[in-house]
Specification:
By secondary structure, the chain is α/β, with parallel strands linked by helices. It has 9 helices and 6 strands. The chain has a single domain, classed as Rossmann fold (3-Layer(aba) Sandwich), CATH 3.40.50.850.
Length: 195
């Protein structure tokens, strides 16, 4: 199992914690809020089996006076994002306590954790070849990272009930679309295989 990692996509306080940026902005979802309880047993089983925990961290890079660089599409989609949100090293940027700690943490600035990041290099250094994905959102960070992982030659598995989107219908369509590049399984099934 030392070549296998559970990739926790963007399970960060600013997305999930009641005091995080998204909660403050009113962008919450019961489906997303349910993920920590579903993913914790998977993370525990992965650790027990000797696998890795990799967390990806969406990042708003601070510029002059700490004002974040925010892509135009994101400004339109999430106009509440502001200075202090998703800052590297901050509480909001961090992995939620329920799933911590991670063995490797990857800062990312786009949907895919491979885009302009050290992810591929870090996975290669660690000898990781197989990736199991859970996190948010299915149609954004998860799907983009899974597709890039496939292109980079990793064996990919997606936890159908370990990912979520703001709209359950969008989640379901995204899971189906990923079948061409990844194995699809459930949290219970992956825990059984790890045990």
């Amino acid at each position: 199992m030392n070549n296998t990692a559970l990739v926790l996509v963007d399970m960060q306080n600013d997305f999930l914690h009641p005091k995080g940026a998204y909660a403050r902005g009113g962008a919450t979802s019961e489906h997303i809020a349910a993920l920590p309880a579903k993913l914790k047993p998977v993370a525990d089983a992965m650790r027990k089996a000797g696998g890795w925990i990799v967390s990806t961290h969406f990042t708003l890079v601070p510029g002059k006076d700490g004002e974040p660089f925010i892509a135009e599409h994101l400004k339109k989609l999430r106009p509440f994002l502001a200075k202090g949100d998703f800052v590297p090293g901050s509480f909001g940027h961090g992995l939620i306590d329920e799933l911590a700690p991670a063995d490797l943490a990857i800062e990312k600035i786009a949907y895919s954790a491979f885009h302009m990041s050290r992810m591929d290099w870090m996975l290669e250094q660690a000898g990781i070849t197989d990736l199991v994905f859970g996190g948010i959102v299915t149609n954004g960070g998860v799907a983009s990272t899974v597709r890039d992982a496939h292109v980079h030659g990793y064996q990919c598995t997606v936890l159908s009930d370990g990912c979520a989107a703001f709209d359950p219908a969008v989640h379901e369509v995204s899971i189906e679309a990923l079948r061409s590049v990844a194995d699809i399984t459930t949290c219970e099934e992956i825990i059984s295989s790890l045990n």
